[in-house]
Amino acid sequence: MAQKIIAVGNSAAVTIPSGFLEKAEMKIGDQVLVETDLDKKMVIVKPQKTQTAEISQEFADKTDDFIEKYRPALEELAKK
Length: 80
Hints:
two-stranded antiparallel ribbon
């Protein structure tokens, strides 16, 4: 599939077909790693894996309660 290099500000971009994004389980806004191979004149785009921890609903609820209870103190700490 041929794509055109387009100007984006002072950079260049190539569009990625939406069908590929869907199959690769990627979406607009995702972080990607871009690698280049000058010998082969290739650009490789890979999804950047992010580590996410699964939390229980109970933990999420207790965290929300904590934030609500101590919101003024947390907001003051955020200013410093």
